[in-house]
Write a structure and sequence with these properties.
The complex is a heterodimer.
Chain A: H1 2-6, H2 8-15, H3 21-35, H4 39-68, H5 88-94, H6 97-128, H7 135-147, H8 150-160, H9 167-176, H10 192-217, H11 221-229, H12 234-262, H13 266-272, H14 283-292, H15 297-327
Helix pairs in contact in A: 2-3, 5-15, 6-10, 6-12, 7-10, 8-13, 10-12, 12-15, 14-15
Chain B: H1 2-31, H2 34-38, E1 41-47, H3 50-66, E2 69-75, H4 77-89, E3 97-101, H5 105-110, H6 118-124, H7 133-140, E4 152-155, E5 159-164, H8 165-168, H9 171-181, H10 191-201, E6 205-206, E7 209-210, E8 212-215, H11 224-236, H12 256-272, H13 282-290, E9 294-300, H14 304-309, E10 318-322, E11 332-333, E12 337-341, H15 348-358, H16 361-369, H17 377-380, H18 392-399, E13 402-403, H19 411-426, H20 433-450
Parallel strand pairs in B: 1-2, 1-3, 8-9, 11-13
Antiparallel strand pairs in B: 3-12, 4-12, 5-9, 5-10, 6-7
The chains are: A mainly alpha, B alpha/beta.
Amino acid sequence: MDKMTTIPHTDQARIAGMGEPGKVRSRTRAAKRARGLSDRTMAWLFVAPTIALLLAINIFPLVWMIRLSFTSLNLSMSYLPLRFVGLDNFSDILSDEDIWVRLQTTAQFVIASVALQVVVGFGLALLINRRFRGHSFWTTIILLPMMLSPAVVGNFWTLLFQPQIGPFNYLVSLFTGVPPSSFSMTGEVALAPWTIVLVDTWMWAPYVMLICLAGLRSIPDYIYEAAEVDRASSWRQFWSITLPMTVPFLMLAVLFRAIENFKMFDMVNLLTSGGPGSTTELVSITLKRAAFEKWRTGYSSALAIILFVTVFGAANIYVKALNRVKQR
Amino acid sequence: MHMRKSATEGWSKRAGGALALFAGVTLSAVASGPALAEGKQLTLCWAAWDPANALVELGKDFTKQSGIEMKYEFVPWTSYADRFLNELNSHGKLCDLIIGDSQWIGGAAENNWYVKLNDFFAKEHISMDDFVPATVVGYSQWPKNTPNYWALPAMADAVGWTYRKDWFARPEIQSAFKAKYGRDLTPPKTYDELKQIAEFFQGREIDGKKVYGAYIFTERGSEGITMGVTNVLYNYGFNYENPKKPYQMQGFVNSPDAAKGLEFYKELYKCCTAPGLTNAYMQEGLDAFKSGQVAIQMNWFAFFPGLYKDPNVGGDKIGFFVNPAGPKGHFTQLGGQGISVVATSDHKDDALTYIKWFAQPSVQQKWWQIGGYSALKAVVDAPDFPGSAPFAPQFLESMAIVKDFWAEPSYAQLLLDMQKRVHDYVVADKGTSQQALDLLVKDWTKVFKEQGKQVASQ
C-alpha cells in the first residue's frame, strides 16, 4: 500500500484495471519512461546541447591543437609526411629572440594602454558621477567608441592619421606649429607604438568608465555624509573613501582590459600591420602570420598554447590578488 | 476496390500532368539556349582589380558560346593570398577556375591543388611554345624549366613606371633640371637618373601645389615592399641562389652588391617619397599619382590602361618607362598569373572548356584590347602591337627582362621573412642593409631546411 501511495503511476495502472503487481511494476517503469523523467535526466537533457556545442567548438579544437603542437604540420606543404617532433616547436619558440621581442612589445602595449585607460576611464567616471545637467547625453557620447567595430575604428583612424589630409596632424600642427605632413603617426618608429595605445584608449576608456561608474554609485551616501560631519576635505574624501572603495572595480577593469589587449589583433593590424618594420607587431599578429600566412600549423599551435598558458596563469594570480583586496 | 481504382486513376492523372510539365519545361529550356538547358555554372576566383572587370566583360562571350554561366569571386589584393590559399588548403569547392599568383605554382602542384594540364594541352593542341617564355616559366611550370604545366598564362604583368609627361615637358622645369644636372629631363634609363629626377621634384611647387618625387612600394602586410625592393636588388646584383648550386644563398642574397641595392631603395624612400607612405602598395600609388602628388610612380602594368584613361592625369599627361637598369644588370619584377583548374572542382570538364576557349588567339586579342594583358605570342609579337597602346612597347621590353620571387611550396614563409627584414631596414631604420640581408639568408635557410632541402652555406 505504501508503495502504491509513493508511486502514483501504479495507482493509475490499478484504476485502469491492468492486473497483477508484477505486471503493474513493469508497466509503471514503462509509463515512467514515457511520461515522467527524473529531475536529473531533465537537467542532463537541458545541459547536453550546450555541453555538446562546447565540446565541439571549444574543447575538441583545443585538444586537437595540443596534439598538433607536437607535430611538424605545415599546411602549405601538406604533402610532406607528418612527423611527431616532441617539444621541438616549444623549444623553437622559447629560444626565438624575435618571439621574446614580440612579447615585450605586447607587454609594453598592454601596460601603457591599460594604465591610460584606467586613468582616463576613472576620471570620466568621476566626472559623469557628478550628475550635471546633460550627463546622460554625454555618457552616451562617451560610450560611442566602444560600440564600434575594431575594424571600423582601425580604418577611420588610419584616415585621421594620414599626414597630408588627416585632421589629426593638422590639430597637432595647430597647437605645436610642427608642419602637419612632417610626421606620420603610424609610420614612424617613435610614434607608432603610442598611436596604437592612443586609439585603444580612445576606444576602451569608456568601458573602464562604465565599470568605475558602477563602483562609484555603489558607495553609500551616508559614508560621505559622515565624512562631511567630520569636516573631511573633498581631497581627503577621495583618498579615504572613493578610491579604496572603487579599487576592486578598477582591478576588475584592469583584468578585463589586460586580457583583451594581450589578445589585441584587429585594430592594430588595420592601423599599422605591425609596422613600421616590426615595431608594433604584437604577439597575436605574429601568431596569425605563423598560422594563416606561413601555414606553420604545428609551430603556431605551440605558440597559441604558450600564450594561453601565459594569460591563464597571469589572470589566475591576478584574481587571487583581487580576492584579497575584496576581503580587506 | 472502388477506392483502389479511384486512387490509381488519380495517380495516373497526376503522373500525366507531371510528364506534361516536364516536357514543357524541357522544351522551353531547349528553346531558351544551352545555359538554361544544362544549368551549368563556373566560378572563377581572382583578385579584385581593373583587369578583373575586363575579364567579366570577356567572359560574356564564353557564356554566349558555351551556355555556361560565369560567376566571379574577386578578393582585394591585400587578402587575396590569405583567402584563396585558405580555400585551396581546405580543399574547398568555391572556385572551379582560379587565377592564382605566380608564386603559388610550386605549392599548388606539390599539394595537388591544381589539375595538371599536360594531357589536356596535348589533346587540344595548345602549345606552350605559343606563349611568352617568361610567362610559361613563371605562371605554368613546376618544377621550373620542366615541361610540367599547371596553368595557362592568363595575365602577363611586370613592374613598370609612370611619369607626368606634362610636367617633364614644361620649359621652366626642363631648364631648371638641365641647370642642376646638366642633362635633359627625360624618363630615366638608370636608377641613378631616377633618383636625380625624384630629388628634383621632391617638394617642388607645381601649379601652386607641393609635389613629391617618387612613389615606391612600402607595404608591410602582404608582398608590397618585397615586390618593390626586388626591382632595385636584381639590378644591383642580388640573386636568389647560386645558379650552379640550388638553394645556396650565402653570397648571393646577401652579396655586398645586393646590400648596396637595398641601401639605394632606402635612400630613395627617405629622400623622395610623399610623407606617410610607410605602408603603401598598388592602390596608394594610384591615389598618389591620380591626385597629382608625385612625378613618377612604380606600379604594375596591369593598372596602366586605367591610368591612361584617367581624366586628370591620363592621355597626354602620362608617360611610361621600363624599370631602370642598375650597375649590375637590367631586370624587373614579374607579376601576373596563370589560370588553373582547381582539383577539387565538381566542374573540371567545364573549367577545361573555359581554358580551351581562353587560349584562342581571337579571345587573347580581345583580352588585350579590353584591358587584360595577353601572354600569347600571336598577340604581343604582332607588328601592330607596339602601337596598340602607349605602354605596349614598355610592356614588351619589360616582359623580356623579368625575374620572379621564389615559387617554392614554402613561398609564403619566404615572402613574409623578406617583408619583415626589408621593412625593418627601409622603413623602421633597424640595422644595416648587410645585416638585413644576412638575417634574411638565415631565415630562408631555416625555411628550406624545414622543407627538407639541402642548403649549402658555401
